Automatic annotation (TrEMBL):
UniProt keyword annotations, A-Z: NADP, Oxidoreductase
Protein name: NAD(P)-binding protein
Pfam family, one: adh_short_C2
SUPFAM superfamilies: NAD(P)-binding Rossmann-fold domains
Provenance organism: Polyporus arcularius HHB13444
Alphabetical list of PROSITE patterns matching this protein: ADH_SHORT
GO MF: oxidoreductase activity, acting on the CH-OH group of donors, NAD or NADP as acceptor
Length: 262
């Protein structure tokens, strides 16, 4: 592993000249992360669902003066996923320095009724697509001895949750995948880490936010006294994408307002 640069601390967080490939960035946490990375100086390639008309993130990045490109792909289509990294390389001039796997889906149902099709969808999007993209990134980054991979895990990387068996299984495995890749690639100067969001006010948690009983139960348990917001991930993602985290390997950074501390 290369040593951490001996520069003033603020410069450690600069992403000037870096190219980022990020999934799940058209809204919510992913959008906030993509914009934060661009604010730190990076150029961004966004993976979007085919037919998406949401250009808000791309427009915000372009307004910062950064290069922004898009690759259209459905992460549930694993054949399409296998082509994403090559398309991003072409779009970004042959170099990707940072991969952020932020996309995810949720399906809720009691375990005794959980449909097999929902299980497959959640596992494919939340785990297998991450593996395929990370493997492609490793094949690019390891020979160059330079790269960062950031996987968005969950509190259910550590806990079981309720009525979300597939999501818990995928996010638990994602935490282990993050560690496994870090074990192999840290010595090659490729840092692999994760971020585990707590309860965040986004579309994925809409059902919880609309359930007054669960909303109260969850809110009362958060030491910070509030649900998180997408912008709460701007600092953590820039940290893990930058030279400031050069010696951070195989960690899952929990951003949860203190939930896990309970």
């Amino acid at each position: 592993m290369d040593p951490t640069p001996a520069v003033p601390a603020p410069q450690l967080f600069s992403l000037a000249g870096q190219n980022v490939l990020i999934t799940g960035a058209t809204r919510g946490i992913g959008a906030a992360c993509a914009i934060a990375l661009a604010e730190a100086g990076a150029n961004i390639c966004l993976v979007r669902r085919p037919g998406s008309s949401n250009d808000d993130t791309a427009n915000a990045i372009a307004a910062l003066g950064r290069t922004v490109k898009t690759v259209d792909a459905d992460l549930a289509d694993l054949d399409a996923v296998k082509g994403i990294f090559a398309q991003a390389l072409d779009a970004m001039g042959g170099e990707i320095h940072i991969l952020v796997n932020c996309a995810g889906i949720q399906r809720r149902s009691p375990a005794v009724q959980f449909p097999e099709s929902d299980w497959d969808d959640v596992i494919n999007v939340n785990l297998k697509s991450v593996w395929l993209l990370s493997q492609a990134a490793g094949q690019h980054m390891v020979p160059r001895r330079r790269g960062k991979i950031i996987n968005f895990c969950s509190l259910l990387t550590f806990q079981g949750g309720l009525t979300v068996p597939a999501y818990a299984a995928a996010k638990g495995a994602l935490g282990q995948l993050t560690k496994a890749l870090a074990n192999e690639w840290s010595k090659e100067n490729v840092q692999v880490n994760g971020i585990a969001p707590g309860y965040i006010a986004t579309d994925m948690n809409e059902k919880l936010l609309q359930d007054p009983v669960r909303l109260r139960q969850i809110s009362e348990r958060i030491p910070a006294g509030r649900w998180g917001e997408p912008r709460d991930f701007a600092g953590p993602v820039v940290f893990l994408a930058s030279a400031a985290s050069q010696y951070v390997c195989g960690e899952v950074l929990v951003v949860d307002g203190g939930w896990m501390g309970r």
